[in-house]
Inverse folding.
């Protein structure tokens, strides 16, 4: 089973700043089959990025994904109030699929 | 638009079972599969398993494989997840999400609104 470790656990930032979220995999993710989701309190997760770097339909270009193998990054430029929440990475290249523990982005 | 609508909240006693439904609309049900993911209160996401809307093939997480059954009804474009021998630590919000119909797994999009299952005596 691939273990995904997300860091930091919590990121305290102000609107307008840049957020950099990390997702490390052990062992490596096959074919960069890695996705990122945003979840707000009381809501279902929402797909942001798939295939490590492809934005989902309707997702702002302020969100970008990068990385390969064992190290992946989600970058959110010019944070807006609606961006605050918990972000999860998800690898779907190997069975069983697994999720990271999440990074909470909160208002500083 | 593509949408998954789940059944309502459930309260069950330990040792019983629960069956959650997930009705799909806005796409051809048999072209995709459904994954089930749960989230315990204040915790992260845990994948439970997948079923193909095409041929009913399944793949269950080892942790629940002895207690879970996933099925579909293509006539109503509905997927079901039944979990038996419930324990208090099964208390969680259960989500369905659209997945691949077979072969490689896929990203999950969209997700249902979630169904809270509470297990308590």
């Amino acid at each position: 089973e691939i273990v995904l470790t997300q860091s930091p656990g919590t990121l305290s930032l102000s609107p307008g700043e840049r957020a950099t979220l990390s997702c490390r995999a052990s062992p490596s993710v096959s074919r960069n089959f890695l996705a990122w989701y945003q979840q707000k309190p009381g809501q279902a997760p929402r797909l942001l990025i798939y295939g490590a770097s492809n934005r989902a339909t309707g997702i702002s270009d302020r969100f970008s994904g990068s990385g390969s193998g064992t190290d992946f990054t989600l970058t959110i430029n010019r944070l807006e109030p609606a961006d605050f929440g918990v972000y999860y990475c998800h690898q779907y290249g190997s069975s069983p699929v697994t999720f990271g523990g999440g990074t909470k982005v909160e208002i500083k | 638009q593509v949408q998954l609508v789940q059944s309502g909240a459930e309260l069950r006693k330990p040792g019983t079972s629960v069956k959650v439904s997930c009705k799909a609309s806005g796409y051809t049900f048999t072209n995709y599969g459904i994954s089930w993911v749960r989230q315990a209160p204040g915790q992260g996401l845990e994948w439970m398993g997948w079923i193909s809307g095409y041929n009913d093939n399944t793949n269950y997480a080892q942790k629940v494989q002895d207690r879970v059954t996933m099925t579909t009804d293509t006539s109503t474009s509905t997927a079901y997840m039944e979990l038996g021998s419930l324990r208090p630590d099964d208390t969680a919000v259960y989500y369905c999400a659209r997945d691949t119909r077979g072969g490689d797994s896929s990203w999950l999009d969209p997700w249902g609104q979630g169904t809270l299952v509470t297990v308590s005596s």
Observations:
- Chain A is about 0% helix and 50% strand.
